[in-house]
Amino acid sequence: MATLGELVSLVLVSVLWGCTNPFLKRGTEGLENVTQPNRVSQILAEIKFLFMNFKYLVPFLINQAGSVFYYYTLSTTDLSLAVPVTNSLTLLCTLLTGKLLGEELGGTKAVVGMILTMTGISLCIISSVDDIDVATQNAS
Question: Within 10 Å of residue 115's Cβ, how many Cβ atoms?
Fold first, then answer.
């Protein structure tokens, strides 16, 4: 029983998460070249590399803003709708953004998987919207 605003919020979270994932991947290029003599120094050097790299830092902050917005949205949205919709759409946004950036989509199986995912999400949303319409009519 989600409102249109809640569904838009879930889609926004998915876009914030999914569209930043390929940029985060690109921002980590060169991380494998960071080497230090011990584990603690290595971890600190990697953290420094990532947070001094704007190609990583900007998508990371946008992604984290999506997380904050997600937790806010969870306070008002049914979990049985929020989690599958957000996670599924995040995957689709990641694949499509990656494709726009020149990454391989994954072939026919990936496209079929995206179509099935969109079909499942659509059914979840339609089911939720129908519940709202019935509840609104009963209240009248």
Answer: 10
pLDDT (mean) for 16-22: 95
Q: Residue 29's pLDDT is what?
A: 94
For residue 82, give every residue at least 6 positions away whose Cβ sits within 8 Å of its Cβ, in sequence order, or none: 2, 6, 10, 73, 74
Cα–Cα dist 46/39, whole Å: 10
Angle at 18 between CA 12 and CA 20, to 5 degrees: 105
Q: Where are the domains of the chain?
A: 4-139
